Amino acid sequence: MCSLGRRYRIDTAVYLPMRQVFALVDCNNFFVSCERVFAPWLEGRPVVVLSNNDGCIIARSNEAKALGIAMGEPLFKAHAEIRRHGIEVYSSNYPLYGDMSARVMNALQAFTPDIELYSIDEAFLSLAGFEKRGLTSYGRDIRTAVRRWTGIPVSVGIAETKTLAKIAGHIAKKSPDAGGAFTIDDEATRRRVLAKIPVGDIWGIGRRWAKMLNAHAIETALDFHDTPETWVRKRMGVTGARTLLELRGVACLDLENQTPDKQTIRVSRSFASPVESRRVMRESVAAFAARAAEKLRRDGLVCEVINVFAATNRFGPKGDYYRGTASAAPPAPSNHTADITRAAMAAFERVYRPGQQFKGAGVMMLGLARAENVQTNLFAPPDAAADERKQRLMNAFDAVNAKIGRGAVRYGATGVAERGRRGVYTVQNRRSPRYTTSWSELPIVRA
Question: Cα 328 to chain center, whole Å?
Fold first, then answer.
């Protein structure tokens, strides 16, 4: 139900809710910006960041974009342009990016208690009640503070709905005149802005809907804004109608202060070079299962089914491509590493094929539920003492690994030389130091 028009009756008086005001704070070129915090000489230089195994370009500085470097372009195809323009290339450094994201989100909490962490580099804020301070000015204050406290540049889009805030954020990032913050707070501004936005760029309008709308001469966000609601609801359902109302300034999406539980958890890797060894494949899948179990415990979840998959190179000789998948279940929904790994190993035996040159593998946790809501097996009476022992073991397991480092304590199924095996499926030839999360890689200042 849309928030505009809600009424709450207390005694005999009718109270209308406070006007909604949302801000979208978006970190600019986030992965590149993280690299620049600790290497300021990169400012003004073209920089790109690569995907896992240094495969494709997944982040670009504005300078790299201006040179025509495409998002998602394989590194080997961009080699000539990289050399010609002296583009700086970095491997993904996810420990650094995750820590810098947490610092940005902590900084935002100084400006409002109501915040939704939308992604690693975006957050929605509620600015209801801050109108007297001047919303655009307040947005620029947020931008200045985050840059000063973390070193990360951000843009701030402000509007009455989350969908309009997304559009305002785009303008704040792209328009030099915006000063890093832009507000859509009246109908004239809204119509002027929407007239310049392609309908396919609206948050919530996918490629299929954009194609359908274009076929009906609906080219811009303003065209969609002016389309009758009954027409939209008939062809796009409730979701399309909600997007339409959001564009008209009717808030239908509230802040999600609590992140909804995940539906699946996936851990997978592409191998640096093809792997045929059964031992290496088995240990890799066991390591992925153990990592997935850690994620389950971190989120307070259990899983009912473990799916294991493995595949050869899709672009290898014609007819040789193989992708195998199989599932297995623990005796009861669990997040215990031993239970998860045992089920993963059972599924692995049905996936592995001798002689195949595997390019990647992984596991997926399915049937997730809150640990406190587990339904026990009807034919296996619960053993509270055993469950308590398993829980204490996993708590100690996670505590040791958190203090010393992941993999310090692990199950034998993952292999004795776990750290050495990482080179099998991890290529990071251009990774910067993990400045904020590894004692051995702290920056050193010399006089």
Answer: 27
3-state secondary structure of 326: strand
Which two structure tokens, joined as six digits, stand for 78? 């961009």
| Cα angle value 285/289/290 (rounded, 5°) | 120
Do 94 and 432 touch, CB atoms closer than 8 A?
no
CA distance 323 to 154: 41
- At 120, list the tokens: 């690693």
Cα–Cα distance list, 441 to 15, 102, 400, 432 (Å): 56, 19, 21, 9
| Interval 3-23: pLDDT, tens | 433 333 333 333 335 578 999
Give CA angle at 415 (322, 309), nearest 5°.
20
Q: Which residues contact 260 (CB under 8 A, 6 or more apart)?
A: none
Return left, alpha or beta for 224; rule: phi > 0 is left, psi -120 to 50 is alpha, else beta. alpha
The pTM of the whole model exceeds 0.85: no
State residue 109 phi and psi, 5-degree precision: -70, -10
> Of 401, 317, 400, 395, whose CA–CA distance to 359 is shortest?
317
- Angle, CA of 398, 352 and 316, to the nearest 5°: 110
Q: List strand residue ranges (DSSP E) for 84-130, in order.
A: 88-90, 115-119, 122-126
| pLDDT tens-digit map of 170-196 | 999 998 888 899 999 899 999 999 999
What Å distances lie between residue 286 and 276, 358, 368, 413, 418, CA to CA?
16, 16, 19, 6, 11
Max distance between CA atoms of the chain, in angstroms, equals: 78
